[in-house]
Amino acid sequence: MSTMPHRARPDACPGVFSTHDAADGALARVRLPGGRITAAQLAVLASCAEELGDGSVHLTSRGNVQLRGLARDTGELVGRLSDAGLLPAPTHERVRNFLASPLSGLAGGLVDVRPLVAALDAAVCAEPALAALPGRFLFALDDGRGDVAAEDADLCWQALDERDGVLLRAGKPGERVPRAEAVATLVREALRFLEIRGSAWRMRELPGFSGARRPARPVEAGPFVRDDGRRGLCVAPLFGQLTAEQLRLFGTDVVVTPWRSVVVPEYRPELAALSSASRVSACIGRPGCAKSRADVRADARRVSVRAHFSGCERRCGKPRDAVDVVAAEDGYLVEGAWVPAGALVDVLGQKGNR
Question: pTM here?
Answer without folding.
Answer: 0.93
